[in-house]
C-alpha cells in the first residue's frame, strides 16, 4: 500500500501469544530497532474472546517499495528467531493500519 510517496505494509504477528512477557518485550525492542531506514509500529491488544487472547500487529513504512521489502525481510528474520511469523495482511491493510493506531481497533483477522 502506498500513501503518497511512502510505501506501507501491515502484518499480524503469528505466535506472539505464546511469548512470555519478558520475551515479548525483548522482541518488541528488537523489531523497533531492526530497520533504521523504515518506521515500525507495533500494537499488542488483549482480546476477551477465548480463541484469540492476544492480537499483535505490525506496520512498517519506508520511502519506496524496494526499501519496504528490504525492511520486511529484516523484520521477518528477527521475528522468526523468536518463532513469530509476519502474516502479511494483503487486501486487509486497512485493518493493519487501524490496529496500529491508538484507537482501540484490534480486529486484524479476516
Can you walk through the features of this model?
This protein is α+β, with helices and mostly antiparallel strands and about 110 residues long. It has one domain (about 5-100): Alpha-Beta Plaits (2-Layer Sandwich). Helices cover about 35% and strands about 30% of the residues. The protein has 3 helices and 5 strands; from the N terminus they run ββαββαβα. Strands 1, 2, 3, 4 and 5 form a 5-stranded antiparallel sheet that branches. β1 and β2 (about 5-15) form a beta hairpin. The longest helix is centred in the middle third of the chain and has 16 residues, at about 65-80. The relative contact order is 0.27. The mean pLDDT is about 80.
Q: In the CATH hierarchy, what is the class?
A: Alpha Beta
Provide the low-confidence segments as ranges.
Answer: none
Task: Characterize the overall form.
Answer: globular
- Which structural class do you get from the secondary structure elements? alpha+beta
Radius of gyration: 13 Å
Task: Please tell me the overall pLDDT.
Answer: 80
Major sheet characteristics:
5 strands, antiparallel
- Under CATH, the topology can be stated as Alpha-Beta Plaits
Indicate how many domains the architecture comprises.
1
Helix content: 25-40%
Task: Describe the secondary structure blueprint for this structure.
Blueprint: E1 2-3, E2 6-14, H1 21-33, E3 39-46, E4 54-62, H2 65-80, E5 85-88, H3 93-99
Task: Describe the structure in brief.
Helix content is 33%, strand content 29%. With 110 residues, it is α+β, with helices and mostly antiparallel strands. It has a single domain (6-99), classed as 2-Layer Sandwich (Alpha-Beta Plaits).
Amino acid at each position: 500500500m502506498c500513501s503518497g510517496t511512502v510505501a506501507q505494509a501491515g502484518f499480524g504477528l503469528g505466535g506472539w501469544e505464546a511469548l512470555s512477557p519478558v520475551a515479548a518485550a525483548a522482541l518488541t525492542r528488537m523489531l523497533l530497532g531492526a530497520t533504521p531506514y523504515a518506521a515500525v509500529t507495533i500494537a499488542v491488544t488483549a482480546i476477551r474472546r477465548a480463541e484469540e487472547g492476544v492480537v499483535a500487529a505490525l506496520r512498517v513504512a519506508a520511502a519506496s517499495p524496494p526499501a519496504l521489502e528490504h525492511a520486511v525481510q529484516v523484520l521477518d528474520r528477527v521475528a522468526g528467531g523468536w518463532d513469530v511469523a509476519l502474516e502479511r495482511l494483503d487486501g486487509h491493510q486497512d485493518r493493519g493500519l487501524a490496529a496500529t493506531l491508538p484507537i482501540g481497533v484490534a480486529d486484524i483477522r479476516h
